[in-house]
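How a chain folds remains the central question behind the approach discussed here. For one protein, we set the task of working out the structure tokens from the amino acid sequence alone. The sequence in question and its structure tokens are set out directly beneath this paragraph.

_____
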Amino acid sequence: MNFLFESVYSFIALLNFRDLIDLVLVWVVVYRLMLLTRLSGAYQILTGIAFLGLAYGLSIWAELITFNWILESFFSNLFIMIVILFQAEIRRALAQIGSNPFFVSKSRLFQESLVMEEICKGCFQLAQRGIGALVIIEREIELDYFIEKGVEVDSKVTADLITSLFLPSSPLHDGAIIIRGTRLYSAGCFLPLSKNPILDKNLGTRHRAAIGLTEETDASVFVVSEESKSVGEARGGHFFPNLTSQEVRQRIYSAFGLKYKTIEHRGEL
């Protein structure tokens, strides 16, 4: 044990200020890459690359010339392939870095509070009219890998838009909408159904789909029931039914990572 401490101390003693900066920058890059991987849900892709890496090592050990040449050609272009595979995630990461990465501005908090109020208002407008809906708030884990993507909307979030998308006359009313950041990202999306055998058998397909998505991601899904004309939330594989407007508002703020009491409320529904 003493030898270990002495080795660590000797290593630290050899570092100068420039080396420390170098290590910190490398740590930041590695951390951001790991975070990017976790948020994008691309574990399957990385697992495949790791498997090919093992196969490459095996080809060297077993002297499999042709197989080794194929894998060596693959890994020589790995950087370009990663850029292609993760172009959307890289673009989002760069955008986050460029948009005030060290603190959240008051204007952004104000904009998010307006979006959250519109989501809450839209959910209860649908509930009052007895129109079923699924409203997904994307959090840290990107949902593109877990859903069947519908139509990209990329629009400002308003209660009227949310309501109109779920009207029976709308071609997108059967799917779910995704709120990404402060934008309505897409509509008409289809979710994986929950495979939990102990769920209440009275829960319909819409509720099971909401629970199924939250079993695999950290998303918050608000479910508007056309039968009971109520609003519930699925989160973490659990469903919370018959929420009041105050409870829905608090849960929406929580989904955005904010405390409800920290933002000035702008009127009741």
About this structure: Residues 17-40 form the longest helix (24 residues).
